[in-house]
Amino acid sequence: MAKIWRMSFRYGNQGPSLWPQCFKHNVAVITYKPIHTTNLGKFPHGLPKHLWKKLAPAQKASLRRFVYEIKKGDTIFVKEGTRIIGRGKVLRPYAYNEKNIVRDPYGSYWHHQISVQWERNFPPVDILLGSAQQFTVIELTPPQIEELNNRIQAISQRPRTQEVTEGEYITAEVTFRKRNRDIIEEKKRYSNGKCESCGFSFPNRYRIKKDCLVAHHKIPIGARTHSSKTTVDDIALLCPNCHSVAHTSDPPLSIEQIKKLLI
Questions:
Q1: Which helix (H) or strand (E) holds 86?
Q2: What is the rounded CA–CA span in Å between residue 85 and residue 127?
Q3: 71: Cβ contacts below 8 Å, ≥ 6 apart
Q4: Which domains does the chain show, CATH number per domain?
Q5: By C-alpha distance, which of 25, 35, 229 is closest to 115?
Q6: How far apart, in Å, are the Cα atoms of 251 and each of 11, 16, 149, 221, 230?
Q7: pLDDT tens figures, 2-37
Q8: Is 53 within 8 Å of 47 (Cβ atoms)?
Q9: What pTM does this model have?
């Protein structure tokens, strides 16, 4: 009987997500430092012993499930934070893929992979399944599967013609960090119009004169304990996509880290 699994695709506990790359290439990936470059398909479970001994208990359990227990036809749900954001059917079980497909922000390729056909229009679900959140890979129990399927069904049945009222004026009192537009305008004045991460050019692609680049502070203003000087070199001009990717992590990804994701 096919099994149903829940898996997360983050670098470390709270690190950057590798899910966009996994989704793009239709794979699931896992790695831990001791076995990073070891093809576990050549060994039975628990071997090489000297490498498995270096793994923490939760790592051993997740790795065992990923390499030896997930089979063709199984289903994998993707966990990110307190949400399930993806679902896919396993096409082929574990293989050590030496092709450089999925790369973390620090330049390492993840070769431990499972081939998965990810659904393209899966509706994200706010749900936290079970208490074993420290495990990268867990098999879902029948009650957990039922609860998750009920949530998915409820979201899928929401009417697409739902209407809301927008545009009402409200008065709000907020506290925010002041940004100096002068330094941003100075940065844009000497820009070539290209995103500093991916090189995308709005003028070249869309034949428009409007500047659509976003000013990204390399050292977030919100992280400062007091007002301080900002130079032109402290600001990067990014396209909206790269700017969003930068803020998928806290602290934000650096320009170099984003560039590595695009390789």
A1: strand 83-96
A2: 10
A3: 2, 3, 90, 93
A4: 4-152 (3.10.590.10), 181-261 (no CATH)
A5: 25
A6: 14, 10, 34, 11, 18
A7: 999 999 998 877 778 999 999 999 999 999 999 999
A8: no
A9: 0.63
